Structure of Calcineurin-like phosphoesterase domain-containing protein:
Amino acid sequence: MVRVPVAALRTLTNRVRPRRARRGTRTLRGRGPAARPLPGPGRTVRPWLSGLGLMAVILVGAWLGLLIVGSVRAPVGPMNTTMTLRPSLSGGTKINISPLGALTLDSHVAPVRLDVNVDQLDPLRAQDLVDHPERLSGLQEEVTRDVEHGTLDLAVRSCAAVVAGATTLGLAVYRRPRRALAAGGLALALLAASGMSAYATWNPRSVLEPKYSGLLSSAPSVVGNARSIVTEFDVYQKELARLVTNVTKLYAVTSTLPAYQPDPSTIRVLHVSDIHLNPASWKIVASLVEQYKVNVIVDSGDTMDHGIAAENGFLDPIRDLGVPYVWVRGNHDSMVTQRYLQRMKNVHVLDEGRAQTVAGLRFAGMGDPQFTPDRSVAPGGNAAEQLAGDRLASALRDQRARHTPVDVAVAHEPAAARETDGEVPLVLCGHLHHEGDEMLPYGTRLRMEGSTGGSGLRAVEGKYPAPIEASILYFDRDSRRLQAWDAIRLGGLGETTAEVSRHLATPVKPGTGPSPSGSATSSAPSP
């Protein structure tokens, strides 16, 4: 046996131990003994995952802070309201006025939405406003001041809420004060960036194009009439004050909702399309005629589904609507249908570009050249529709040459309607079962209506029921030009929702009148 000296054994042990330690732990290349170790195998650093977790803590903490302590109670005129900021992908402002419903304004684009809930009316202020209507003149300034003060208080409280929420959640997750304070600071920076985005994209005209949800019968009083908005901006501002008074009366005495009072200088046209044999449509049409005091109805086709004589009885309620009914043939309407309607006294059938003056407006239209009740592919396709549109455009030029220009052209298919570009201020169509608005290259506005029958029996074919859509078009009686329209959207089968949104045909500036050649400001989707 070989004997190893103890001193040599200790020297060998000291040399081996550091090597074993280096196998399990790698060190950063650095200076001095302060170099920190890197994780070994299985402990890979993922900075993106750490950053994602921090962002989740910031967002959830800020949201919880706004939800718990981010509300402000503020008086606005005679009303007591609660203002709150909520996370949102589209931004905007939502004003909840129970029991009337809600007003949605496209006021800004930011990841936060302003919610204003009308909690109750102050009895003393409300009664004082009802007893002394002359005080309405100063109501607008009072409401403006109240909203400014409430918004300022909301901004301060929201800043404190997001910092407190994100810091508290960061402390609970990371248990390190420095990391928690970083989360609170980043939450405050995120809210500040959202505020700057809202300020940069603020749209003061959003109040002129509100979207109203709730009771359909109160919608006209909420959005006002076209004439006062377009030509009398100051009068429209007073209408907002009148709305406050009406709501006050509704709360105070639970009386009936305020009735819509039409402007005698405005022609109101109800545009319907693609009823597709839905009998419920006639009750809706009759209700809209009465509520909006409609002067004339325009139907852009597909009233029937198969166009056979057995379906003709479905058209009889048109006689009882009490207003003129302008109609063009769709691809589900036959000549049998057209001849049946021609025998009704209040129906004006448009075909082959022939023009008729109805309710102060001159209409001309072209029936659909194709008849496809079985939903087969049309032999002519778009070529046949474009040819029909060319014939309609030629008839419009002839009318203008005779010094009897047409105000509104009507076709069923959008491809035919587009051929009238430059020959008429407005062309109406349907066929695609969804609402749309488009300014054509040569200045003609194309208004496409959705299905007023909820696509008929096709409403039950999809996953969700199709909505029922119609529009109220407001024309100036002197210039016979479109001023504004209300897009009406009712929930489909089994639904009870109602929505009315106002759209202006021309930009509006305080103290200025309409310009028929102005650019479009519609928020509706293009067809």
Residues 410 and 525 are 20 Å apart (CA to CA). The two ends are 100 Å apart (CA to CA).
